[in-house]
Amino acid sequence: LPYFTTVEGLTNEEVHALIERAEEFKHGEPSPKLDEPVYVTNMFFENSTRTHNSFAMAERKLGLQEITFDAGHSSVSKGESMYDTCLTMSAIGVNLAVIRDRANDYYRQLTTERPANSQLDIGIVNAGDGSGQHPSQCLLDMMTIHEQFGHFDGLKVAIVGDITNSRVAKSNMQLLHRLGAQIYFAGPEYWFSHEFDAYGQYVQLDDILDQLDVLMLLRVQHERHDDQTEAQFDVQAYCDQYGINQARYDRLPDQAIICHPGPINRDVEIVSELVEAPKSFFYQQMQNGVFMRMAMLEAVMRGRHLGGLA
Ligand code: CP
């Protein structure tokens, strides 16, 4: 029962191997021949455009057979649990489940904490758990950064915005810190927690812009905010202090890149005219996602646990 659920347990060697493999796929390396059909299902209990379709494309390119799962029309609407839904998919012969859910750590019940007598026999790939982890987004970000700079050591990376609520920020701060990048955090203080001090330093964005290699913008995630946070949030103040406008864009070094996991709130995190500007690497991130997800799925198909919690 292989799984790929977090980036916490990934070794640096595994990260570099995944990037190398994703690069091979990107440069036309054919996917390995499968000895027998491999069936995969994409179970998205939270909405998605990029991750869902990028996994679907990666699966097609690898020659996997997708069994469609539509959360809204599934028996989850009758109260069936995630565990029992996965047990059903396993019983009908599905080999791999790519899952996104709003609950942090949902994957533990399917992997390290499943019942001792569990008959579950299905590989699990985490496509995002609440505000916990987003391994595939993180690794496609690492691939995009590596393509631009060729290394991580000493890179200055700012993670900006709704950090507390962002699974992308959690995965990226953990991995970038371990790979030797210097991390800065910026954004409203109510979206910063001292838990993040272990990974980087809280700063004012305008104090560091001209030193940055990577400016990592986060989406303002209204769907995860409680009433108090929504009441505190002032979109104009956010744009004024943290929004990437032409003046802030121009202060970034020429080789710097701006990343955003998407979907973008245009004219909030960045002004609309700069979404496809040369330093904005959002399109490259989305392109790279397909190849990185091919590499991740291949690793799981080879029976390797990656990033699982002990
Ligand atoms: N980056 C990301 O997870 O986007 P989606 O929510 O569209 O999958």
UniProtKB/TrEMBL annotation:
List the keywords (alphabetical).
Pyrimidine biosynthesis, Transferase
List, in alphabetical order, the GO biological process terms annotated in this UniProt record. 'de novo' pyrimidine nucleobase biosynthetic process; 'de novo' UMP biosynthetic process; amino acid metabolic process
As recorded in Swiss-Prot or TrEMBL, the protein's gene is named pyrB
Full protein name: Aspartate carbamoyltransferase
Q: What is its EC number?
A: 2.1.3.2
Q: Which residues bind carbamoyl phosphate?
A: R50, T51, R100, H134, Q137, G262, P263
Asked if the Swiss-Prot or TrEMBL record annotates the protein with the keyword Transferase, the reply is: yes
Its function, per the record, reads:
Catalyzes the condensation of carbamoyl phosphate and aspartate to form carbamoyl aspartate and inorganic phosphate, the committed step in the de novo pyrimidine nucleotide biosynthesis pathway.
Q: Where does L-aspartate bind?
A: K78, R167, R219
Which superkingdom does the taxonomy of this entry point to? Bacteria
User: Among its keywords, does the record have Transferase?
Assistant: yes
Q: What is the lineage of its organism?
A: Bacteria, Bacillati, Bacillota, Bacilli, Lactobacillales
**InterPro entries cross-referenced by the UniProt entry:** Asp/Orn_carbamoyltranf_P-bd, Asp/Orn_carbamoylTrfase, Asp/Orn_carbamoylTrfase_sf, Asp_carbamoyltransf, Asp_carbamoyltransf_Asp/Orn-bd
Output the Gene Ontology terms for molecular function.
amino acid binding; aspartate carbamoyltransferase activity
At the top of the EC hierarchy, this enzyme's class is transferase
Q: Which reaction(s) are listed as its catalytic activity? A: carbamoyl phosphate + L-aspartate = N-carbamoyl-L-aspartate + phosphate + H(+)
**Its annotated pathway?**
Pyrimidine metabolism; UMP biosynthesis via de novo pathway; (S)-dihydroorotate from bicarbonate: step 2/3
The Aspartate/ornithine carbamoyltransferase carbamoyl-P binding domain is annotated at: 4-147
Against PANTHER family, the record matches this protein to: ASPARTATE CARBAMOYLTRANSFERASE (PTHR45753:SF6), ORNITHINE CARBAMOYLTRANSFERASE, MITOCHONDRIAL (PTHR45753)
HAMAP family the UniProt entry points to: Asp_carb_tr
Q: Where is the Aspartate/ornithine carbamoyltransferase Asp/Orn-binding domain?
A: 153-299
